[in-house]
Fold each of these.
Amino acid sequence: MTAQLISGKQISEEIRGGLRKEVEQLLSQGLTPGLAVVLVGEDPASQVYVRNKEKACQDLGFYSEVHRLPASTSEEDLLVLVDKLNHQDSIHGILVQLPLPQHIHEKSVIDAISVKKDVDGFHPVNVGNLMIGDDSLLPCTPAGVIELIKRAGIDISGKHAVVIGRSNIVGKPVSLLLQRENATVTMCHSRTANMKELTKQADILVVAIGRANFVDASFVKPGAVVIDVGMNRLDNGKLAGDVDFESVKEISGPITPVPGGVGPMTITMLMMNTVLAAKRLKG
Ligand code: GUN
């Protein structure tokens, strides 16, 4: 049996259709959502991500600025730029693309971004608000995972969700969001003993461990929902998820592909966060 495919591409298009209408309305009220993206250095994957964000802004009618800075940029100069963007009225969202060159402390830069313009949801205040369930700008990939599951018509409440991976960007926040949706959540990571015993109990399995094709059919309960957050570049240049899609789809329930699953949702959530930040800043 082959599982139902959850198309992040299609669901993203649906959400962006709604966003486009909302932006038209905001434009007519004199509010143009503005996003600034800062890229330091020439990491090839980051360049692609930044270009895609720029295209999404153009497509939705946002104002956008992309600041491409050399890898030699000092932390001080980057902080000066962040401060300028914090005070710039045409900008409602600021995203500094990670990873940064080694001589720049990521934490210092994230901490410097205005909490209200932190459309990545990485600032400690937004992370804390997520933890205690207060209103905050949510990190884009975890928010995209939840939106994808809901819009695929899957009920999260009461389900056992197992998350593989404990990163600050995906594993930890997606666990909190699943819990907020009333799932019972188990977290696994690279040091988990007997991982398969746990993953085989999952009604919903979210995989964000950063290892190509790590999860095969032996990890999965028949009929389970499988969400693959992995984006691994193979030696042959192809993109692979953390899930061995071909074997898992034979026994799983609804499953996301890579590419075309979680990836498009991340950018869509960034666009949603920028609209939300613009509305909140305008008051
Ligand atoms: N690099 C990889 N993913 C992300 C992300 O979601 N936000 C930022 N700022 N950088 C990233």
Amino acid sequence: MAEKSFKYIIVGGGVSAGYAAREFGTQGVKPNELAIISKEAVAPYERPALSKGYLFPEGSARLPGFHVCVGSGGERLAPEWYTEKGITLILKTEIVKADLPSKTLTSSSGDTFKYEVLIIATGSTVFRLENFGIQGADAKNIFYLREIEDADKLVEAIKSKKNGKALVVGGGYIGLELSAALKINAFDVSMVYPDPWCMPRLFTADLATFYEAYYIKKGVNVIKGTAAAGFVKKENGEVKEVKLKDDRVMEADIVVVGVGAKPLINLFSGQVEEDKGGIKTDAFFKTSVDNVYAIGDVATFPMKMYGDIRRVEHVDHSRKSAEQAVKAIFAKAQGKEIEPYNYLPYFYSRSFDLSWQFFGDNVGESVIYGDRDPASEKPKFGAYWIKDGKVVGAFLEGGTAEENKAISNVAKVQPPAPSPESLAKEGIQFASKI
Ligand code: FDA
Ligand code: NAD
């Protein structure tokens, strides 16, 4: 059993680990001071590609093309970059024990790693249907999507079940992006979810009406208000049918499940303060334990703009929290201070020819505007959220770069809201003049 020591260790090798590595490089980390330990077999990459370009039937994205930091227009950090910087990438290595008092991590093969400063960047894991006690959920060809290994299995199945039937369970981010990807791959796609409309975490009923109609126009069979209750297997163990709670039975060659994710923090339970399902941090992503930081999906951090604490499961925050934590670590070592994290929430998604962005907070009254006819050649519409007389959130489908910047500015400035009628009438013009 080997023991290795590093000044800094990042546990987890996803988006936030990659952006943290770049910031370590910028701050002048010395050779052999930093190690990234990841259970994945590849250097950090832009995870959002897995549900989009990675699944395209032609011109699909493949590594090394989408290593971080290309997703935000930055330099691509291929494995050689880490070698040049003297940053040690310890791949295919799962940490199974973390002992914070002795500053020691242990891998599944029994190797130990000592650190002075630890950054927790373990991200999230999917909820599995087995956990809900759903019968037959262990059938072959039921897929989840989190890591590149999952995406490779799905790509294989897409090839082997060409022109087959796919059932997508869940109507959130994965449900919507994967239904589109499977349709583009010529599958006969049904998407099933229990909610009254898709993406209820963000969409209002009005917004969802457009996306549901658009998916139906593209040939996706949208089944709302019910859920998968059980799976029937073929003799070879592959999934054959899905039984729904409303007693409908759907044939399926493959099933893709996206019913939510939960942060991977069990290694640290009882050793750090937790809140809202994540590891509680300050505005510099320092946890309740000195010299231990948490970034990305696992961090529950102060949301300065809204005066509360939140966890965010989106890529923009994973990048920015990583940079903030590393800057804070170096500043602290030099006895300096940096500005507290002041995050403006930013989420986006792309599917078919659609592309939307959202900034701010989706609370209060909402106002929708624009062309949301699914039959339009280029639908373009948006929504604003109004709270306490101010516009606090803005959504835009089909916007230009300039218009997306304008809605981001609205969410940041929080201007006084005109009447809902005039906001609906002004539409994107309201944002453009702020
Ligand atoms: P991330 O999940 O990226 O990385 C965690 C890493 O830790 C993984 O490499 C994992 O293997 C490793 N790990 C975990 N436990 C470990 C252990 N015990 N030992 C060693 N390694 C361990 N967001 C968005 O805003 N727009 C988008 O379009 C998308 N699209 C998208 C698609 C898909 C398929 C997914 C799954 C997610 C998205 N997201 C997204 C969400 C976004 O990707 C997510 O918020 C970030 O990847 C979070 O970054 P983290 O670094 O926190 O976790
Ligand atoms: P999600 O929370 O977005 O959606 C889960 C969906 O599953 C919800 O619509 C919910 O109603 C539904 N659901 C719950 N239980 C169900 C059941 N038993 N049967 C059918 N449906 C059920 O989560 P997700 O789509 O699984 O995404 C996983 C993670 O990946 C999240 O952290 C998400 O933020 C991230 N992600 C983000 C993007 C993006 O930002 N564009 C894209 C893909 C993934």
Amino acid sequence: DLSVGQLRFLLAHSNSLKSACVPHLKPRQNFGISPPTPSWTQSLSSKTVALLFSKRSTRTRVSSETAVSLLGGRALFLGRDDIQLGVNESLQDTATIISSMTEGIFARVGDHSEIEEMAKYSSVPVINALSSLWHPLQTVADLLTLHEHAKLFEEGASASQKTEHLPLRPLTISYIGDSTNVLHDMLVTFPRLGHKMRVGTPPAAAYQCPEPVWNRVKELGCDKNIWWGSDPQDALRGADVVITDTWISMGQEAEKAQRLRDFQGYQVTEALCREGGANPNWKFLHCLPRKQYEVDDEVFYGPRSLVFPEGENRKWTTMAVFDALFGGWHIPSLAGTS
Ligand code: CP
Ligand code: NVA
């Protein structure tokens, strides 16, 4: 729902929060020099944010709890066994009550309709922490990571010859694997920022883009910059960045055997990317958690992999989004959604 201008604004804010907080949190990196006075505002001071998680989480939970804490607020973690929701109480009543006592709701749900319903009945902002269709904050973290590593994508010069703050050039971003919530937010975001996407998913109907997502992709004009096929090697042609997600998303565990058969040939490896014609300098992203059958250890733990900075950036980007939507920090209404 954010315009390109608003996204860029959030990325810049994430970057400045990270620059302000990291030296403060890790003063040993200052070699004995006192940490600077924190320059971010305590915008959640005296405020409570409800974190409703109906599914497991490591990154989304830790990033959101720590982000609220750094903004001076209190995070109230509400797991599926903690509250009446789904057993004794409806979503409508839950959203009405929780929003009457808190300043924001961050919710990880099953079906996407659940987050829509929560937003309908909540009197405070509701942010999607992952639903069946979308995982918006993951894409913001991925974008920050690509921008931070912009120099790695410049040809003809080593990383050390580059200045730290290069603009990110238009990239070819290849995603192979399942059409997941993580991919869907990339589809509506990367093309609007000038990047091309190449997607490779197995041919069965279950692995194609869901209609509501593709409708939004077309509405935003992103489809013009997306190639989609079923051959992973075709999808990797010219890739500057290679991305995959889990082949078995939370809730699909019963389909494991079938999925492992259907995804044969989609494991990200050096050989597959070379044979597919990826840019020799390609880099790798994965939202995590990761299984070895999706990407081998050589890639995952090798020099191409940006997965751990990507994981950490969940915190700084979430902090910027919370500051804006729960803390009252203002996102200017820059242009439309294009
Ligand atoms: N990437 C991500 O959302 O990870 P978690 O499921 O651990 O939160
Ligand atoms: N597609 C995965 C993402 C996990 C972060 C899932 O929904 O389980």
Amino acid sequence: MKQYDYLIVGAGLWGSIFAHEATKRGKKCLVIDRRDHTGGNIFCENVEGINVHKYGAHIFHTNDRDIWDYVNSFVEFNRYTNSPVANFNGELYNLPFNMNTFYQLWKVKTPEEAKEKIKQQVEEAGIKDPQNLEEQAISLVGTDIYHKLIKAYTEKQWGRKATELPAFIIKRLPVRFTFDNNYFNDRYQGIPIGGYNKLTEGLLEGIEVRTGVDFFKERETLTALAETVVYTGPIDEYFGFQFGQLEYRSLRFENQLLDQENYQGNAVVNYTDGETPFTRIIEHKHFEFGTQPKTVITHEFPQEWEKGSEPYYPVNDDKNSAIFSQYKALAEQEPNVIFGGRLAEYRYYDMHQVVGSALKKVKVHFD
Ligand code: FAD
């Protein structure tokens, strides 16, 4: 008999849900994380009473009632609605593209006028078979929206010219002919009241957690402690990078505490011009309707990922997908190890998808 039924590597959302569900079923769990905190990428740092989203702004949204009820059973969510604003050389536009944006761009007031304007621009561009992201975007929404709101932002995000990016990156562009600035179409969205740490704390309540512990530094000892390992870290690292390193796109965050109450009047402002080096400024207090006397803002700079920097967005191109398939095949053969979460599955997951994925794995494993 080992000391624990499960050793859970990674106290992010995926690992925390698995630990919670296993504990609920009477299993003994040990959760470790190499960071000095739990929560993984949804962790918030408290600065002057403001929850600062340390690893990028996080907005929970889902269409799935069960997933919404599940997260709300640990902490109630507020009514935050994501309505980003774009700043293009000092001009402000509402996002996603909707009647407010079209009015700001062209002073059109009716859906018919807006549709006509877009149709005209798409026709004038005359792109029949889009060969790259630029042509694809113009063929969907015309030149004005593309040049003011898409081009530079996308180029900053990917670190490449839009003409060098494949067309498939933009399959469709949501265009709304109503005055609706709600970025998401999902039925439920919000931020945990009191911050995301409340969600993690709720999930991990009563479970033994050790932070600042790297699985690979004590692999044998830790593995020997439990019947089963649940691994939510990078899959290539687990297998010693034997097929090569999986690539990511990364971000750099610059936080500033400002001695003013309200900096930009919105949680998210995108900078869509080519001169500004960052893509967004996040003002964290607005996620929770904060009234603190100070404010914290974060400038977001996309950057290439190199060893040691945070892996944020998997590059799911052919090369990396082929490498991942090799690791996945090994993972399927690995006895007494369950792999899950964004790093072990090398895929971009929104939080609601992580909840869905972890609960599904729990169901398959226990029921
Ligand atoms: P993680 O949170 O990465 O957790 C994995 C944990 O494993 C980490 O804490 C790590 O330290 C630990 N670990 C790894 N290796 C080891 C090891 N060797 N030993 C010990 N511990 C280890 N989703 C939304 O729904 N809405 C959003 O607005 C949103 N915004 C996002 C913005 C950005 C910039 C990014 C990158 C993602 C965003 N997401 C968003 C997605 C969200 O962050 C993820 O879905 C979620 O955090 C993934 O949880 P996870 O447990 O799979 O991974």
